[in-house]
Amino acid sequence: MIGYLVFLAISTAIYALFCLGLNLQWGFTGLINFGHVAFMTVGAYTTVLLSLQGVPLILATLVGMALAALLGLLMGISTLRLREDYLAIVTIGVAEVIRLVVNNQDLPIGKEWKSGVFGVQGFPLPLGGDKPALMVLALLVLFLVFWLLERFVRSPWGRILKAIREDEEIPKALGKNVFWYKLQALMLGGAIAGLAGAFYAWQLTTVYPNNFEPLVTFDAWTIVVLGGAGNNIGTILGTIIYWAYDAVTRFVLPQIMPLDASRLGAFRIMVIGLILILLMRWRPQGILGKKEELTLGK
């Protein structure tokens, strides 16, 4: 039981990091990113592959974050001067391209490598056998990222992001480079998601392309919408609720409903959808969101 609680704490911290990146992009800046999992994929695989080459884990993680930010730069340069829907289309397309590319590549098999469909197993992981230590580290990093983001979004930089979200013509009229601010938000949010990917790899100690399907992105959207877009505390609260729901239904529903595993999983997703429908009906801004800052439907 304790082991499962540690797993829940690590998973919650990882998803909170992942969703904070999305909240910066969409909740604060209004950028519709349906391929957020691409940044996590880059961070996870970079950490794994560099670790296999003997690169220190911290350095491998930083490189993964940098490459995730670079991916945000490339996506932003090609789309941010166009309409919002172009960014949404490109991001989900890039995420699938990255997943399919790694799914169809083979790694050289040696004594340090074990490769299936680009799945890397058994890479040297100092924290891999010490989940409580990994939990403490993940929570500390989450707190640090949250603290820094709060300072950023309350600064003049953050106020410009909010102005862009509301009506980008106003900051343009004030002489602000809207394109550059959007690019910064996309890159920083991508770097944070890359960091989440590194922790995800540390937790699993094995990564496969199926770990990074589009559903991961839409889980993040569910969490941000639930907690309240444009509110970092709300994002963390939404993550806690999401994983609490996952844990409770995983153990309680089988006792109540005599369904097989596949039908039970479908039912759990259906309930999440129902909850979101009710939330959008009665509180579209989310639990801690502000209605005047609502970005849905803009």
UniProtKB/TrEMBL annotation:
Instruction: Give the keywords, sorted.
Output: Cell membrane, Membrane, Transmembrane, Transmembrane helix
Location of this chain's protein in the cell: Cell membrane
Membrane topology per the entry is: Multi-pass membrane protein
Q: Which InterPro entries match?
A: ABC_transp_permease, LivM-like
List the molecular function annotations (GO) for this entry: branched-chain amino acid transmembrane transporter activity
The record's annotation in CDD domains points to: TM_PBP1_LivM_like
One GO cellular component, as annotated: plasma membrane
Q: Which residues cross the membrane?
A: 6-24, 31-51, 57-74, 132-149, 179-200, 220-245, 265-282
Q: What is this protein called?
A: Inner-membrane translocator
| Organism from which the protein derives | Microseira wollei NIES-4236
